[in-house]
Amino acid sequence: MEITWPVGKRKIKEEPPIVYLIGVKHSLQSDGPRDASESERKIFAEYLKQCVLKYEITFLGEEFNEESVSGHQAKHSTVALLAVDMKIEHRFCEPNSLERKKLGIPTPGELVGQLGITPKFNIGSHRVYASEDIEKIYREDQKYFSARERFWLEKSKNRLEKNILFVCGASHLDSFSRLLQNQNIPSIILDTKFHF
């Protein structure tokens, strides 16, 4: 929707809100022992902060949830901490296990079980899989990207009247931006460099 109003003899056009997307490696999103280093998270948080200021962001959404934080054996979400620091709204947008069940989206653990894949070995509670098994898990998980991305959009929809910043796995950038485009929601992919 285009809004114009007279100012003197010319009209000023109000720009529609934009969803700014940043693709990451999920280990940047929390402070668990197997996650990115503190210095990497600080660089990421500083970049997010600059984006919030530059693009006048009023809402931070992310492909993460409370279960993700605890699953990473972490205390905090990097994005949520920044939102608190900057006094802007934050929302976890990834469906939790109950929401996944309702939507028919298996959890990563359920995918592994469905595929009959066993870990190569364990390090504490962390399972390590062979690279070919990781590829199988990823291909199976991709089948559910669309349903998950629609869920993210629903969780964010009531904040689309202003610019928002959404952090998701880099592998979702193209498909999520297409979903937004199909819904006539302007989006810009800002960065993928945080997928070390």
Give a summary of the structure in a few sentences.
This protein has helices at residues 38-54, 66-71, 78-86, 97-103, 108-115, 131-142, 145-156, 173-182, and strands spanning 3-7, 10-14, 19-24, 59-62, 89-92, 121-123, 126-128, 164-169, 187-194.
Helix and strand arrangement:
Layout: E1 3-7, E2 10-14, E3 19-24, H1 38-54, E4 59-62, H2 66-71, H3 78-86, E5 89-92, H4 97-103, H5 108-115, E6 121-123, E7 126-128, H6 131-142, H7 145-156, E8 164-169, H8 173-182, E9 187-194
Parallel strand pairs: 3-8, 3-9, 4-5, 4-8
Antiparallel strand pairs: 1-2, 6-7
Can you tag this structure with a few keywords?
Rossmann fold, 2 domains, alpha/beta, five-stranded parallel sheet, 196 residues, 41% helix, 8 helices, disordered N terminus
CATH architecture of the largest domain: 3-Layer(aba) Sandwich
The overall pLDDT average reads 90
Q: What is the 3D shape?
A: globular
Percent helix range:
40-55%
Strand portion: 15-25%
**Got a strand count?**
9
Low-confidence stretches: 1-8
How is the CATH topology of the largest domain named? Rossmann fold
**Major sheet size, sense and barrel closure:** 5 strands, parallel
What number of structural domains do the residues give?
Answer: 2
**Rg over CA atoms:** 19 Å
Find the structural class using helix and strand composition.
alpha/beta
Distance between the termini: 38 Å
CATH class of the largest domain: Alpha Beta
Q: What is the number of helical segments per DSSP (H or I, 4+ residues)?
A: 8
**Helix and strand element order:** EEEHEHHEHHEEHHEHE
